Amino acid sequence: MTFDEELRNLDLTEEKLKNLRAALKAEYVPRTEYDRLFDNLNAAKAEHKKKTEFLKQSAADRLERQKALYELKLKNFLVDTAIEEAGAKSVEIVRALIDTEKTELKEDKLIGLIPQLNELKRNAPFLFEKKPMYLTGYCPEGGSDLIPKINTADMTYSQAVAFLEN
After folding, report:
1. Using one digit for the tens of pLDDT, what is the confidence trace for 146-159?
2. Strand pairing of 104-106 and 109-111?
3. What spatial distance separates the first Cα and last Cα of the chain, rounded to whole Å?
4. Mean per-residue pLDDT for 39-50?
5. What are phi and psi of 29, to 5 degrees?
6. What is the pTM of this model?
7. How far apart are CA 125 and CA 17, in angstroms?
8. Residue 19 parent element (H or E)
């Protein structure tokens, strides 16, 4: 039985039926319209889910790229710092002679570079400067800041002898 047949069975007058139909049209949507809107809603939800997944994947990829870039910059910085600390005359030349692929970054520490630098120092010592030697005296009880550090590389032989006699 349809809705119109149910209304007629209620023994309402034609005017009351007309008013009731007008009120129902104002308040409710026909089933076909409801189905169309429901399908549109489900399609919009599916599209939203697809875009959300794409954005999540895109953000994860971007984060991975940023992490890799950070690690590369940190590795380059640590390599350059280690080369400078080794006393290289030219960081660029020494860097070109080192295989950075054999080094790896673990917990913000560079592993595998020191053996390469030592090998390079042994095979090409002209690429590195000798660090100046400082003489320091013995001062018990922690008073070492009273004795000045002297760079003997800038002294002549007679100055160094005079310094050691005092």
Report:
1. 555 666 667 777 88
2. antiparallel
3. 123
4. 96
5. -105, 145
6. 0.52
7. 107
8. helix 14-27
